[in-house]
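Blackboard transcription, Thursday session:
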Amino acid sequence: MSTAALSTEQAPAISVPLRFFVIAPLFLILAAFILATNSVNPFADAHSPALLAATHCITLGFMAFIMFGAMQQILPVMIGSPMPGMARFSLLPLLTGTLSLAGGFVLTNPALLNLACVLLGLAFLLFIAASLISLIRAPAKNASRVAILLSVLTLAMAVTLGIWLARGYATGLPLDYPNIASLHIKMALGGWVMLLIVGVSYQVVPMFQLTANYPKWLSDNLAPTLFIALLLSLASTLSDATTLQALAEGVLCALAGCFAFVTLRLQSRRRRRVADATLNFFRLGMIALLCAAGFLLSAFFSGQLRTLSLIIFILGFALSVMLGMLYKIVPFLVWFHLFRGGMKKGVPNMKEIIPESLMRGHFWLHAATLLALLSALFRHQFIWLVMTGLLLQGILLCIALYTAIAVYRRTRRNAEEVLS
Amino acid sequence: MSTLADYMSTDHKSCDEAFALAEDAVYAGDWVTAESAFNAFGKDMARHFRREEDVLFPAIMNANGPQGPVQVMRMEHAQINELIEQMAASVVTRNAKSYGGLSETLLIVMQQHNLKEEQILYPIADRILAVGREALIDRLKAV
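(Written on the board underneath:)
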């Protein structure tokens, strides 16, 4: 068992996760801009190039940036193993790759799509390799490690399928687009995002609110069963076994619903009564996950519900949980790096780094964006409200992150002046 | 048979409970209860640190256990103590805002510290101190 892992030196410099975090909200703004300028209506056409561009701005531009940054920070604590430095070199190819992909879709430009395949392939290769090295070296053999490992494996599958699709679009290959796209979405959302959030939740839900631990029957079995259901989905789609495909989808929905339900229950019985923005974001995220699972199960009756389920999963579940995590991680990082730098007095506490009113305001704005999304199902014109919500959220998150960085810089400058 | 990991993790949980009681009282504006709950929390933490620094860590070192992790844990204890001292000052001045911010900070520092101990250090201790573990647990209880 490696014990060298347990060293504070494994915490990366504050700039490592923050560089990923500060780019993320810019992509929310870009997504809103693409949706607005191309008059997209996801409920009328779920495959329009502009919608694909905006979606990838959110999933790659926002979500991947947050997850890449956060994993480099939390893996050392959660599984006792730092991520090799090569992970941080994924930033530039991820940034340029996502921009090329979005550009390639909006401008229907094959050269940009091809370029995106190379750049994103490189970014994910670096990140997946670094994650696997960290996971294999991990001294802690816990349920989180299993879930994160499976999440990285499904990410590799999602990326492979995504590159295959993008190459197909670029070259006009006659691929089975609907089925490959469906698998790509399942692996990316049901696999990578879901499994990562599950693995991280096992530790942060009890930690942030002092809840009981997740029940052992759930933490031991959820991630492996989800992974098997995803493989079943893959096999049944490739072999055209539609009944099995529906069954796998049902299992995925049931597992996601079960996770959301247990999390909400744990949080309702939390020992720490103080409610904060993070808790609100998490709860909203879990309610959205329940809705997404329910809508997908009912998609048999209407194709629109399938689209709604996907959007609720991305904006309602994944985005909520990630925002909740960010509003806890960023203040902690600023405090930790100031404190570790040798300062004792004059270090602002976690609540003095990003104003609580801003975080609460963002929560309500986010909840309103989701309500607008639901209303857009009935009145498609309301999509513009969703775009406005995303735009404002991007701006607000930029303000929050730059405020935190300003506090960090100001405190360090003041301390240096005192010393000199 | 109880393990060191079980015993020490339970100790973490009882410190968490004391932490939550104090925080609840501060947010309720009940400073009399807050003061006694905070003092109880401080005592629990101090006893937990003594259990580790006076009994468990030396036992790990004597069994040729890993030095680095123990060193890091001691450093984190110092960080936690610094925060508890600052919280004590805000209890004296009855400053709920400052207490709330500090307790939020302490919670994360404390929880990630506990996580590292529970997942890495305690299992190592259970492995290398398997012989005479029960006597060691008795000594921990006596602190």
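Lecturer's comment: Chain B has a mean pLDDT of 93.
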